[in-house]
Amino acid sequence: MVAVVETSPTPRRKLSRAERRLQLIEATISVIAENGFARTTLGEVAKRAGLSHGLANFHFESKDKLLAATLEHLSDEYRANWQAALAVAGPHPADRIAALIEADFTPAICTADRLAAWCAFWGEAQSRPMYQDVCGQNDEEYQGVLEGFCRDLLADGGYGGDAVRVARVLRVTTEGVWLDLMTLQSPYSRDEARATVLAAAAAFFPRHFGPDGRLAGT
Amino acid sequence: MVAVVETSPTPRRKLSRAERRLQLIEATISVIAENGFARTTLGEVAKRAGLSHGLANFHFESKDKLLAATLEHLSDEYRANWQAALAVAGPHPADRIAALIEADFTPAICTADRLAAWCAFWGEAQSRPMYQDVCGQNDEEYQGVLEGFCRDLLADGGYGGDAVRVARVLRVTTEGVWLDLMTLQSPYSRDEARATVLAAAAAFFPRHFGPDGRLAGT
DNA sequence: AGATTCTGATTGAACTGTCAATCAAAATAC
DNA sequence: GTATTTTGATTGACAGTTCAATCAGAATCT
Asked: Where does the pLDDT of residue B8 fall: very low under 50, low under 70, confident under 90, or very high at 90 and above?
């Protein structure tokens, strides 16, 4: 769960400032995933990190700022993930769209804890400016990049349709299947979730995407 | 905001049991929409309904049960809405799919308060059995009905594709654009949201749906 | 190297405010 | 008159925040 040390019986005071912050953020993700936003307390976060509850306020000044830092961590991590995927993807717009979809289901990103935390933040987004402050820019960047690839592929492939709406469908379908994995009584697998997004891509770009993803040789 | 009385200076004891419960539920929706789940208190709910705070516990036994009743109200209302839309829709599967999509954007259902409340409940769904207990059956019924129409239209129109995944894309696209309306920095309009879902339908069923919805004469 | 000082991370108790739940009394309906 | 609904004060628990004391490790001195 916690990505850092916290192993030996006396690991105290071993971690740097940044590592300690990260440890508390990971603990926060875990608590939010398990208890929900409304029942996330500093005490539980500290307990899960094996630290005293005063520390959270020492490192983050307030509960709100800890939550904001947690969301920022998730958002930056997400952005770094899709940008890394694009860096090794082919130049064709279909390759780049396929890379973006695939990136959303990377095991490192698409974990139960992280998905649950994302959903919890979305649920609170309406009532707190925090979400838009932290994620607004990253979200717009992602939508813009995906829109560009969709525009290219629509033109390149001679497809009809509006790039903005196509990109939006692909993005919200991903978010939607994530939500399904959290809220459904009997959720389907991560592979089925990815296949669902690819089915949408195949509907918009039938000569570049098939039921199993990117079609070769185009 | 509140759909019921609360007008004259002394409206006390005017409403029946069911009406009073509904009044408290509407106030709860309003508070959740404005403050989020984590900051929803019984005191604020009662205040918004113009009642004293002891009443919430009198009519619903506990805060949890008030929240569950609120979710149940939303879920039943949603179900009644799409079933009413189906009752007046044509028999062709494309007509029925179009009716379901249209129903999701009815002004009575697709209000800022209700959307925000739905998102808040989704955010808490992972950590409380409440959501699945209350909505699981309705959600499965909706998915099953939509799947049936998709299966019929895929066969009838000679389309390729998997009915389960097509239905899932249409459903989560609707949920996704709802979420967008809540979380985006500069959200688009309800009409644009509906057009986005219709764009997805047009991708799967190009001979039955166009950019502006259901195509006539098919 | 060993002793001393300094820094700032860490703890845990105390304080404060808030909220859900309870309940006795008042108001209202039947 | 009796039953039901409503009020508003009270209670107890709990969470966020503050803070003084502690302590580990780094830096400095001899």
From this structure: very low
Class of domain B1-61: mainly alpha
Distance CA A152, CA A107 (A): 29
- Segments of chain B assigned to CATH 1.10.357.10: 72-214
Of the partner residues A39, A169, A184, the one whose CB lies closest to the CB of residue B127:
A39
Residue intervals in chain A for CATH 1.10.10.60: 1-61
Q: Just give the CATH number of B72-214.
A: 1.10.357.10
For residue B152, give the nearest of B166, B171, B134 by alpha carbon. Answer: B166
Q: Which residues contact A85 (CB under 8 A, 6 or more apart)?
A: A99, A100, A102, A103, A106
Alpha carbon A24 to chain centroid, angstroms: 19
Query: Tens digit of pLDDT for each residue in B181-204?
Result: 988 888 999 999 999 999 999 999
Q: What pLDDT does residue A4 have?
A: 34
Q: What is the mean pLDDT of residues B35-49?
A: 94
User: Does A172 contact B172 at a Cβ distance shorter than 8 Å?
Assistant: yes
More confident residue, B12 or B111: B111
Specify the higher pLDDT residue, A84 or A128: A84
Measured in residues, chain A has a length of: 218
3-state SS, one letter per residue, for B173-211? HHHHHHHHHHHCCCCCCHHHHHHHHHHHHHHHCCCCEEC
- Can you tell me the ipTM of this complex? 0.88
Provide, as residue numbers in chain B, all residues whose Cβ is less than 8 Å from the Cβ of A36. 37, 123-124, 126-128
Q: Do A126 and B139 touch (CB under 8 A)?
A: no
Q: How far is the CA of A27 from the C1' of D10 (A)?
A: 37
